[in-house]
Amino acid sequence: MIVRAKAPLRIGLAGGGTDVSPYSDKYGGYILNVTLDMFAFATIQTRDDGKVHFNAQDIEQTFTAEASAELPVEGSLVLHKAIYNRVVKEYNNGEPLALDVITYSDAPPGSGLGSSSTMVVAILSAYRELLKLPLGEYDLAHLAYEIERKDCLLSGGKQDQYAATFGGFNFMEFHQDRVLVNPLRIRSDIQNELESQMVLYFTGVSRDSGKIIDDQIKASSSTTSMEQSLNALHQVKQSAFDMKECLLRNDIEGMSNVLKSSWQAKKSTSASISNTYIEEVAQLAIDNGAKSLKLSGAGGGGFMMIFVDPINKRPLIKALKQTDGQVHSFQFTNSGVTAWTV
């Protein structure tokens, strides 16, 4: 039997970092994000030789072993192993599954587009299709979150799993005991104009978001020394409300202004969010027509989202081609994760 799944990557328009515990537990986190036509893909096919085989083709890592009730969550492909363990334990009565899991992502790990969490959602969705699991959208996203944060002890927030699961434009609320996803119905003309005024640029630097997330966790403790960082997180959260209001009013210029102020606030939450190279690229972009910009995700590298007047878009792209990074074409997508049987 063969099943496949794909889940969309996302860009965070505003509020990123406020979905991280303990900030979201204490103060509530709010995020506006949207998914792109860039995906994480997963194929699962059953085997008859009693083995389990994982192959992450994009990062060229493989793992093969005898199928067992629990695989050691260590070494390579820990997410693949942790997902397998959860599915076997909770949904297959502890009985081993002999299968191949082959994956690929359109974006590298550390891209700032939620690629790792999106891959978890894609793989889980494939298992859901294979075993006909009774998992709704919230169940799937929450399980993906638990596997990353609890089973694998990876630092991070919650938005990526929910964005990949639900898809489209979403205004998300994160609290200690609940997550609420509010889908936004954005007219096609607004989406088209927003796409026309945006450039998605990969800095060429993948980063480990762990240190940045850890800095934000410290800020949430609200000690005197971290008061500036905590206030900055409050500003980042407010930007999500402001950005949503502008988006619904088709105020793209307003969205650009919110992006500019939220990027400054975001940089105040951790010294690891920006660096000399990023600032040089940012200045190059501004000098060539960019109105505002910010890094997607935790920061430190990955993808940069840039607002620019459409008449200045081609000159800006030409200037960015002088750097070590790459401009990526994209469109918004309004669908979340999907899986099917071959």
UniProtKB/TrEMBL annotation:
The keyword Transferase applies. Keywords: ATP-binding, Kinase, Nucleotide-binding, Transferase. Signal peptide: none annotated. Coiled coil: none annotated. Residues 243-316 form the GHMP kinase C-terminal domain. It holds the Pfam family GHMP_kinases_N. Residues 82-168 form the GHMP kinase N-terminal domain. Belongs to the GHMP kinase family. This is Dehydrogenase. The lineage of its organism: Bacteria, Pseudomonadati, Pseudomonadota, Gammaproteobacteria, Alteromonadales.
